[in-house]
Amino acid sequence: MDKGLSLRDVTIFKQGKALLSVTHDIGSGEVLTVMGPSGVGKSTLLAFITGTLPTDFRAEGEVWLDGHNITNAAPHQRRVGILFQDDLLFPHLSVGANLAFGLKPGGSSAARQAKINEALQEVDLDGFADRDPATLSGGQKTRVALMRMLLSEPCGLLLDEPFSRLDAALRAQVRDMVFARAKARSLPVLMVTHDSDDAQAAGGEVITLGD
Amino acid sequence: MLGPLAAGLLGTLLPAFGHLPAAGLSGPSLEPFRNLFDWGGLPRAVILSVTTGLLATAISLLIVMLLTAGWSGTRAFRAVERLLSPLLSVPHAAAAFGLAFLIAPSGWLSRLTSPGLTGWDRPPDLLIVQDTWGLTMTAGLIIKEVPFLLLITLAALGQADAQRSVTISQALGYGRLTGWLKTVLPRVYAQIRPPVYVVLAYAMSVVDVAVILGPNTPPPLSVQIVKMMSDPNLAMRLEAAAAALLQLSLVIGALIFWRLGEVLAAWLGKHWIASGTRGRFDPMVARIALLAGAGSAIAVLLGLFVLAIWSFAGFWGFPDALPDSLTLRNWVRFGPGTLDALGETALIAVTVALAGLILTIGCLEAEYRYGLSFSQRAVWLLYLPLLIPQTAFLPGLQTLMLHLGADIGRGPVMLAHLVFVLPYVFLSLADPFRAWDARMGTIAAALGASPNGVLWRVRLPMLLRPILTTLAVGLAVSVGQYLPTLLIGGGRVATLTTEAVALASGGDRRAIAVYGLMQTGAALIPFMLALLIPALVWRNRKGLRHG
């Protein structure tokens, strides 16, 4: 399979002991949910895919994205986008500058500004470009983080319990928006969570680790 | 940075055993030690080094521990903390001059109370400053080490989960102070042990404070070493080297003694904890500690204030509380000289602090990128240049450089400063740098930023405040350096500190005041900028206001 994110015999070890093993193909626009209690190594799996595995872990196996083996690529060349449970907007940059950080280089500054405004419109944050991210609400921050990531035109999307900090009412709304945007761009999505509602809403296959 | 250290120690070791080819002498011989032991002042000089060092360290540690135990988390503690933190950057020499101007027989305290309370209309004939037992010198060291140990302790508290331990012990009926001592102190002390040792080694071998506040006949061993080093007779260098080795062994001995003291304190502490006493005297002890802490801060502040008055003083007869007139004449007279020294000081300090900062960021970034980690042992290595007394290896370094024909001057002085600046810069930046959320880096990389892009566009801007503070620490440490500038500069590199200390024997209070204030300004203003600049640059960024 060409398009999509493939994990081939990925096994993660901590101090020589295997924590988890995954083999799975995630096609374009599909979602794979990995569930399990904390400490089972879910986030470590994502760290392996982004190329930021902590040194006390070791991994075997390969990660393929859109027909390229990215197992040993540098983190910034993998084109894998990630969202954490904290929005992690850069606190020193305005909302607009955060989006510009994600936007691929090139184009006139007017064209870049237009793309940023467009992105803000898409998530109902018109006119927020000059705001300090610290003054936004939780849901607004998550939406900015999502658009920042999408502007970098990733080929795959990782979600590390991205909704667990949001309160129940907001949660469904933001969750639907993230999955809709990913589907609209035909991105393969890998989500780790310990919330079965998230898994259900994702609608894709579910792997449960560490039982 | 261990290279100069090893070279310096070697350069001390050889002459100490009579080997100094530059003076046409080759060893080995025990002659230098024989000469040293023949010096009648030696026992007194040795005792002075040991007592002032141990007393200053023990008392400042006691004040800081009891102050933190009794008050941490309260408003009074915040107030004392805010008073003490800026004092960290006040150079030792300036603080010592201030104290001398305050408590000398003709000092400000005596003027304020005379003749009304004391009946004196002439300065009394008391040996307060430069007293034979070095008590004033000890006090001068305490008022400077209290802010240092307090800040170190505050940093350690953050990792010790102190507040909850105290809450639990209070719920079990312990007083705040006793609860803290029994539950938090053991963890905190383990963390602040290296800096405590640094304070001990420093206090035992300090030169500038000893020249200003310490006794003369005989002076503490460290001052005697510097005197021998500046003797035109090259053979005196051999004796100086022997004395430097003696100084080194004294410090090592004192550190061992201190370690044994720790063991004893731990044993006593265990029994005290097991006894279950709840701390009946807590309120009284806490109040004394608060007085001592606030008193030490006020002593430095008042001292600087007296320096300021003297720098503008016209005629100021003895029992008058204030000078007859205030004038700019002193500044006009000494200002140009201080500006030259300021230029030299700034050139050296900026170069050294920037070099230290770049090396430190390089180390920490490499640690982050390649997943290296420093062991506890490496931390001790970092502290080593601060633990070896300056008087033990700087004379050796100077002798060695003379021997190699190396040019003595600004460049070597900068290198010598870097040896002492780098550890402080590293210790100051390491925690905030490591505490940075690495997921920010993951996000930035996922957005396509290269490792250098992450460093320059995300990490360094986010860490602007700790980086500027670190730079200010580096500047302050360099500005305050006395011995490396004097010895490695061969007397030809004149900074504000060397000039100010050189004025100590002359006793021209107006000149001392001007130089002391300039020296304080050179160390303090960078700290103010380090607070001001991030507040301005990030004025619209709430997320960075407390970072």
Please give a structural write-up.
The complex is a heterodimer of chains A (211) and B (547). With 211 residues, chain A is of the alpha/beta class. Chain A has one domain: P-loop containing nucleotide triphosphate hydrolases (Rossmann fold, 3-Layer(aba) Sandwich), CATH 3.40.50.300. Helices cover 33% and strands 26% of the residues of chain A. In chain A, strands 6-7-8-3-9 form a five-stranded parallel β-sheet, with helices on both faces. Chain A has a four-stranded antiparallel β-sheet with strand order 2-1-4-5, with helices on one face. In chain A, helix 2 packs parallel to helix 4 and helix 4 runs parallel beside helix 5. The radius of gyration of chain A is 17 Å and the shape is globular. The two termini of chain A are 30 Å apart. With 547 residues, chain B is an all-alpha fold. Chain B has two domains: 286 residues, MetI-like (MetI-like fold, Orthogonal Bundle), CATH 1.10.3720.10; 219 residues, MetI-like (MetI-like fold), CATH 1.10.3720. The longest helix of chain B is centred in the middle third of the chain and has 41 residues. Chain B is globular, with a radius of gyration of 24 Å.
Briefly say what this structure is.
Chain A is α/β, with parallel strands linked by helices. Chain A has helices at 42-50, 95-102, 109-122, 138-151, 168-184, 196-202, and strands at residues 5-14, 17-26, 31-35, 57-65, 68-69, 80-83, 156-160, 189-193, 205-208.
